[in-house]
């Protein structure tokens, strides 16, 4: 086992791994050479987090903590440990096959796996801070995206109900554009539904009013997104082809602590736009597309590239040159996504690391 290269560990040092759940977490502590010290169950509350840190300190100097699910159930614990000056690393769940099949599955095993991932140096990802404007963006975008989905469902349901409506009602409404259809349906309110005809009018009116309410909600969310992205990353939103929605996706991928991404190559990998080697035997130098990474950020990069291919003259010229060299459109878009990721990385805001993030929790 390769011990963490960034730390000079002694046997008295402590590395903690935590398997997180909604109501209760389980932690396992290892010493500096990999020996298991013990385990500790804690409630997912501030008092539980404090008890975990006190328990770990009883065994020595706490040098690092590996936490599963730092973006969900482990977010509160990760924030608390970071505030207390701990090194916190994000740990992925154990693999479903191979190692996990051989070792079995339990909360205790998962917590120990998290600690050993940190001790070996395999877990090096710093979790997102989730304590600034980017976290606010994420929450607003969740509300907006769900509202957009609900609005689409509303108009689909409205058109489906219109198909089975009376011939007179269908003839009056089917030829209208979507917004005129919605407006016309809001005026269909009448007597309470008692027969198929009145029920159809009632349902169409209800769905149309729901669509309008969601439409207004989406516009309000969009205004907040535009304001926050402009305040957080004005250079990013001022760049050609990058609107508030794509800028929000880029900021959300980086997080509030953008300095955790060490290079533009790391950011490209995070967004799934770095080519992956795929050579073996006699086929050398080949690469394939990266199907991993943050797929929402990848889709945002694609939208930026599509806009630039249509309206941005330098991008149009680049595509023409690469086409003359025999590149396909898919290959050109992949290259452009990589270039845009490099450009976006230079425009992302980076907060200065605070001294507390570099401390080791004392005894």
List the helices and strands and how they pair.
Blueprint: E1 13-19, E2 24-31, E3 36-43, H1 46-57, E4 61-68, H2 75-83, E5 88-91, H3 99-103, H4 107-120, H5 133-163, H6 167-173, H7 178-185, H8 196-232, H9 234-237, H10 244-254, H11 264-270, E6 276-277, E7 287-288, H12 295-311, H13 313-324, H14 329-347
Parallel strand pairs: 1-4, 4-5
Antiparallel strand pairs: 1-2, 2-3, 6-7
Helix pairs in contact: 1-2, 5-8, 5-10, 7-8, 8-10, 10-12, 11-14, 12-13, 12-14, 13-14
Order of helices and strands: EEEHEHEHHHHHHHHHEEHHH
Alpha carbon gap, first and last residue = 26 Å
The portion of residues forming beta strands comes to: 5-15%
Q: Radius of gyration, Cα only, in angstroms?
A: 27 Å
The number of helical elements comes to 14
What structural class should be given to the helix and strand makeup?
Answer: alpha/beta
Helix content: 40-55%
The counted number of beta strands is 7
- The parts where pLDDT drops under 50 for at least 5 residues are 352-363
Major beta sheet, strand line-up: 3-2-1-4-5
Largest sheet: 5 strands, mixed
- What is the residue-averaged pLDDT? 87
Shape: globular
What is the assembly state of the chains in this entry?
single chain
């Amino acid at each position: 086992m390769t011990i963490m290269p960034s730390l000079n560990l002694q046997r008295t040092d402590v590395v903690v791994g935590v398997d997180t759940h909604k109501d209760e977490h389980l932690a396992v502590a290892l010493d500096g050479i990999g020996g298991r010290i013990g385990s500790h169950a804690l409630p997912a509350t501030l008092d539980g987090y404090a008890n975990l840190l006190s328990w770990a300190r009883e065994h020595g100097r706490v040098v690092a903590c590996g936490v599963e699910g730092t973006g969900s159930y482990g977010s509160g614990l990760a924030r608390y440990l970071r505030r207390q000056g701990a090194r916190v690393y994000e740990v992925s769940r154990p693999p479903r096959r191979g190692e996990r099949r051989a070792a079995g599955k339990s909360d205790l095993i998962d917590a120990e796996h998290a600690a050993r991932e940190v001790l070996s140096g395999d877990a090096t990802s710093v979790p997102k801070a989730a304590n600034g404007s980017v976290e606010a963006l994420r929450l607003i975008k969740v509300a907006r995206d769900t509202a957009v989905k609900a609005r689409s469902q509303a108009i689909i349901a409205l058109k489906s109900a219109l198909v089975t409506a009376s011939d007179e009602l269908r003839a009056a409404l089917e030829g209208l554009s979507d917004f005129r259809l919605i407006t016309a349906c809001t005026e269909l309110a009448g007597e309470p539904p008692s027969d198929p005809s009145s029920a159809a009018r009632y349902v169409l009116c209800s769905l149309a009013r729901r669509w309008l309410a969601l439409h207004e909600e989406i516009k309000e969310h969009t205004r907040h997104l535009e304001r926050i992205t402009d305040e957080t990353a004005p250079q990013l939103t001022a760049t050609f082809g990058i609107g508030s929605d794509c800028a929000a996706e880029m900021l959300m991928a980086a997080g509030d602590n953008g300095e955790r991404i060490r290079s533009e190559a790391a950011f490209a990998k995070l967004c799934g736009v770095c080519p992956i080697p795929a050579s073996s035997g006699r086929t050398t130098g080949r690469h394939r597309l990266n199907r991993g990474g943050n797929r929402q950020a990848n889709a945002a990069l694609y939208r930026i590239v599509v806009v630039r291919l249509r309206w941005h003259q330098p991008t149009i010229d680049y595509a023409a040159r690469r086409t003359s060299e025999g590149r396909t459109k898919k290959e050109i878009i992949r290259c452009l996504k990589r270039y845009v990721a490099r450009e976006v990385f230079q425009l992302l805001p980076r907060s200065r690391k605070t001294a507390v993030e570099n401390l080791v929790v004392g005894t």
